[in-house]
């Protein structure tokens, strides 16, 4: 039976715990390993554990496993509620030089970008459906990435732009600035600014 303290800790963290989080509360790795052996908890990957399948937040687990990754492109579109489309793979941006092993087997579409593209200026934290924090490109960076992306799902660009233009929290000034920085001013003018009221 899982210890009451450990169970409470899992519940406080939405059913997911890393060895680092456990160590902060004085629970060591061996306690977690023994709980796995007893089938009290499950191991997702090295250093990441979850209580049971009811607590399986796939996006958050993936982020814990690949802490240098930022959800981007079609996954960011979904997380920002800019489309009803749910991508078949997880779109994640990593700094160039990061070596992701077996991306295809893990259902990840990786993008390797400059580390400057993943600074706090371009990244927001949004809640997953299970209220866990996810690092995702901000609204305007998501728009820019998608307009630069040549293989987007059919219809997603139009839906994304329509939803973006109807949002209260859109930042057209920032979008124009990003358009200049990433050399897609013409696309921004043609696809977005031409229809801004």
TrEMBL record:
It holds the Pfam family AbiEi_4. It comes from the Bacteria. It comes from Tetragenococcus halophilus subsp. halophilus. InterPro entries: AbiEi_N (IPR025159). Residues 6-49 form the AbiEi antitoxin N-terminal domain. This is AbiEi antitoxin N-terminal domain-containing protein.
């Amino acid at each position: 039976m899982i210890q009451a303290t450990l169970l409470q800790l899992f519940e406080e963290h939405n059913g997911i715990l890393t060895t680092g989080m456990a160590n902060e509360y004085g629970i060591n790795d061996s306690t977690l390993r023994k709980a796995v052996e007893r089938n009290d908890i499950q191991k997702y990957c090295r250093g990441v554990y979850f209580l049971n399948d009811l607590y399986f937040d796939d996006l958050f687990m993936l982020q814990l496993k690949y802490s240098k990754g930022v959800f981007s492109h079609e996954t960011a579109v979904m997380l920002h509620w800019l489309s009803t489309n749910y991508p078949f793979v997880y779109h994640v941006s990593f700094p160039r030089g990061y070596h992701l092993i077996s991306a295809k087997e893990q259902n990840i579409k990786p993008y390797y970008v400059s580390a400057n593209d993943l600074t706090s200026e371009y990244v927001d934290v949004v809640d997953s459906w299970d209220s866990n924090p996810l690092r995702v490109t901000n609204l305007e960076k998501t728009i820019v990435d998608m307009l630069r992306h040549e293989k987007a799902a059919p219809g997603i660009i139009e839906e994304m732009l329509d939803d973006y233009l109807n949002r209260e929290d859109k930042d057209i000034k920032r979008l124009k600035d990003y358009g200049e920085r990433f050399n897609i001013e013409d696309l921004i003018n043609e696809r977005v600014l031409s229809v801004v009221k």
